Amino acid sequence: MLLYENLANEFATLIGDGQMRPGDRLPSVRHLAQQRQLSISTVVQALRTLESRGIVEARPQSGYYVRGRTARCVDAPAPTTAALPVEVGVSRRLVDVLRANEAPGMVPLGSALPAPELLLAPRLNRLYASIARCQPKLLAGSSHGELSEAPLVRALMRRALEWGYPLAADEIIVTNSCTEAMTLCLRAVTKPGDTVAVESPTYYVMLQLLEAMGLRALEIPTHPDTGVSLDALELATRNGQVAACLFIPNGANPLGSVIPDATKQAIASLLAARNVPLIEDDIYGDVCFTPVRPRPIHAFDPSGNTMLCSSFSKTVSPALRVGFVAAGRRIGDIVLQKTLTSGKTNPLTQRVIAELLETRGFDVHLRTLRRRFADQIGRVRDGVARYFPADTRVTDPQGGFVLWLELPADIDATALHRKAVAAGIAFVPGEMFSASGQYRNYLRLACGHPWSERIDDGLRQLGLLIAQLK
Ligand SMILES: Cc1ncc(COP(=O)(O)O)c(C=O)c1O
C-alpha cells in the first residue's frame, strides 16, 4: 500500500471507530508531515483521498474537518416569478423577535453580529484616545459643506483599488452605518407607493425600511449559490413597475450567495439600460470565502446607476456606526438627503476608522475573521446535521456568517421560535425574511460566535424541540 493510502486509512479507521467525531479538526498538513516524517505532498494526497471518500471536508483557510451526516443544500428556487408587489408589514413582529433574542444569557444564534472578541474594540479605544489628543479641533465644530473626512475617503478608495477597481473621491459620502446609507439612497430615488425589488429571502431590516417609507416589495427569486435570478429581474423590470432594486450581491443575508461576475455585469447593464437605480449592500464583501475579494456590482457599472452602500459593523464594531455610500451619478441627491437627515458623521470616528484601514494589520485581521467565520459556519452545519431531522436542508454560504435552513414542511419556525426563546435559544424565524409571508418552515442561524459546548447544546435542544413539533 502507498504511504498516502496508509495515512488515509488510519484516519478513516479513527473516524469510523468514533475516536474522531464530526466537526473535529484534523492536524494541519505541516504538523502531520513533521510528525509522520512524510512529505507535504503525501499528506495532502491522503487528505484529498479522505475528502473524495466524503469522510472529511476542507474549510477555506481553516483546514480539514471530519464531516457529519451530510447537511443537504437548500434547493434553488424557480428562475422566473409571477409575484406581485406587496405591502410590507414585518416591523412589529420583528421588533418582538429581536427583543426576545436579546434577553441575557441566550444561546447566540440570533443576531448576525460577530462575537465582540473577534472584533477590534481595544484597538479602537486606543485610536480614539490618541487621535482626540493629537487633533482636538476634530470635536470642536462641524461642517455641512464637507460631509466626509478626506483621510477616510482616501482609505476607502485605496481599498477598492485592491479589489481591482477605482472609486471616485467625489462620489463618496460617509454615513452613520450601512442602514443609513441605504435609507438615504431609497429616499433619493423613490416616493411612497413605489415598488422596490428585493432578493427573496432578504435581510429583514431592508423590509422594515420599505415599510417605514411606504414602499412595496417585489420579491425576486434568489439562488443560494449564485444570488438573485437575472431572468426574473429581467421580467420584473420590463414594464416600468420597479422604481429601484435593493440587493446584497456579496455574501447575501440570509443566503450567503455571491453573484458571479458575468451576472453582475449583466445586472448592471440591464438596470442602467432601463434606468432602474440599484442600491447594493456590500457589508459582507470583505468576509466572503471566494478565492479573491468579490467586486460589487458598482465596479461593473460605468453609468453611475449603482449606489454602493457598506459599513464596518461586521468587521470592526457594530457600535462604531460608520458606513458610506459611493453614489455614482446620484451623489448630489444623496448629499442633500444626508445633510437633511443627520448632517456630518462624527469626524473623530471617521478619522479613527481611516487610520485603522490604513494599518497593515487590518488585512491580517480580515483574513483571521474569514477563517473564524468559515470555521464557525462549518461547526454549526455539523451540529445541524447531527441534531436536526434528516430532511433538513441548509445552505453552504460563500460569505458572511449566517446559515439558512429549510425544515420539514410541517414545521412552523415561528412556533418553534417561541419555544426556543423560552428554552434560552435565539434564532430568527424565516417569515421575517419575506414581505409576502413565505418561509414559514425556514429559519436563520447566526454563526458569529466561536463554537462552544453551549452552542452545541443549544442546537441539540433545538433539534429536540423540532422533533416535538412534528
Ligand atoms: C445585509 C446587512 N446590511 C446591513 C446591516 C446593518 O449594518 P449597519 O450596522 O452598518 O447599519 C446588516 C446587519 O445585520 C446586514 O446583515
What is the CATH top level name of the largest domain?
Answer: Alpha Beta
Name of the CATH homologous superfamily of the largest domain: Type I PLP-dependent aspartate aminotransferase-like (Major domain)
- Total helices: the number is 15
Q: How many distinct beta strands? A: 16
Mean pLDDT: 93
CATH architecture of the largest domain: 3-Layer(aba) Sandwich
- Sheet with the most strands? 9 strands, mixed
Count of spatially separate domains: 2
C-alpha geometry: globular
Fraction of residues in helix: 40-55%
- Class per helix and strand makeup: alpha/beta
Could you tell me the CATH topology label of the largest domain.
Answer: Aspartate Aminotransferase, domain 2
Distinct small-molecule ligands in the complex = pyridoxal-5'-phosphate
Unreliable runs, pLDDT <50, ≥5 residues?
none
Radius of gyration: 23 Å
Distance between the termini: 49 Å
Beta-strand residue fraction: 5-15%
What does this structure look like?
The protein is an alpha/beta fold and 470 residues long. It has 2 domains: 3-66, Orthogonal Bundle (Arc Repressor Mutant, subunit A), CATH 1.10.10.10; 69-470, 3-Layer(aba) Sandwich (Aspartate Aminotransferase, domain 2). 41% of the residues lie in helices and 14% in strands. The chain is built from 15 helices and 16 strands. It has helices spanning 3-16, 29-36, 40-52, 91-101, 121-134, 150-162, 178-189, 204-212, 230-236, 261-273, 331-341, 347-358, 361-387, 413-422, 453-469, and strands at 56-59, 63-66, 72-73, 86-87, 172-175, 195-200, 216-223, 227-228, 242-247, 278-281, 306-311, 323-326, 393-394, 402-406, 428-429, 442-446. Strands 4, 5, 6, 7, 8, 9, 10, 11 and 12 form a 9-stranded mixed β-sheet that branches. A 5-stranded mixed β-sheet has the order 3-13-14-16-15. A two-stranded antiparallel ribbon has the order 1-2. Strand 1 (56-59) and strand 2 (63-66) form a beta hairpin. The termini are far apart. Bound molecules: pyridoxal-5'-phosphate. Pyridoxal-5'-phosphate binds at residues 112, 177-179, 203, 248, 253, 281, 283, 311, 313, 318, 323.
